[in-house]
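for the recovery benchmark. tokens below, seq after
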């Protein structure tokens, strides 16, 4: 049964302090059901891969990345059982640019250590004491974190939604737009036009992006590079490695071994 935020936060219209994120006082677990809150969530995991879904798309945060979820945005969070979450809940008035849409942010080594240190503070620490000063530095670093492109657009157009949900369920599917056009009673050309119109990507790039983000949790879970390449629909391991390195700045093996994870998560190529 879904668990909600602890009593201290549940039902509040605003946070009692500009930022919350204490390890012992905030429910740092993935809420896999659709929900929203009246504050910003900085969804971050020190281990594991977070997969945040909104009406606009999926936002993927491998290690050293976080997902910025604005106040009021309905979302679901998915992750593996061993993911270690250290999310922050932030009053929208405490950070510039708190509005806008969801986005994936880079987490620098300094920001990572600030999150860890802040999570170890007691929830009742003085807002104007050392804890408050640490929170101020933390918010400055969050506000300065650069945005990345680890996002898979999810169209709302009914025909495309059916196509995309099928590929999400089976990233290794070899079906093309011609096959889907026959099923949906429309032409391949129509589906191709709709993909560009509703996702900003052509179908080839959208499917490539889906396959790459589908690989991240498998690699994080320790599955072999060859097995991951096959599961994600690649014809050859070398093609998978080359595509992964081009988009994430590290090979799949380096990502799985923790080498180069600070670089992993580079912006996806655009059309």
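predicted aa per position
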């Amino acid at each position: 049964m879904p668990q909600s935020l602890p009593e201290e936060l549940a039902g509040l219209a605003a946070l009692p302090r500009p930022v919350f994120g204490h390890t012992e006082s905030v429910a740092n677990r993935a809420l896999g059901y659709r929900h929203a809150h009246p504050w910003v969530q900085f969804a971050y995991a020190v281990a594991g891969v977070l997969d945040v879904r909104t009406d606009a798309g999926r936002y993927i945060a491998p290690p050293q990345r976080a997902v910025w979820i604005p106040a009021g945005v309905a979302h679901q969070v998915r992750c593996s059982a061993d993911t270690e979450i250290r999310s922050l809940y932030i009053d929208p008035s405490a950070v510039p640019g708190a509005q806008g849409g969801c986005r994936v942010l880079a987490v620098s080594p300094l920001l990572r250590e600030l999150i860890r240190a802040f999570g170890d503070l007691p929830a009742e620490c003085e807002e104007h004491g050392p804890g408050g000063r640490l929170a101020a530095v933390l918010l400055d670093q969050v506000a300065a974190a650069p945005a990345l492109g680890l996002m898979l657009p999810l169209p709302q157009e009914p025909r495309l939604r059916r196509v995309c949900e099928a590929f999400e369920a089976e990233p290794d599917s070899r079906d093309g737009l011609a096959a889907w056009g026959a099923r949906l009673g429309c032409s391949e050309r129509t589906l191709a036009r709709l993909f560009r119109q509703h996702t900003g990507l052509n179908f080839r790039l959208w499917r490539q992006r889906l396959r790459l983000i589908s690989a991240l949790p498998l690699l994080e879970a320790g599955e072999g590079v060859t097995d991951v390449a096959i599961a994600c629909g690649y014809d050859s391991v070398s093609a998978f490695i080359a595509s992964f390195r081009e988009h994430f700045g590290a090979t799949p093996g380096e990502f799985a071994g923790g080498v180069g994870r600070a670089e992993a998560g580079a912006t996806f190529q655009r059309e």
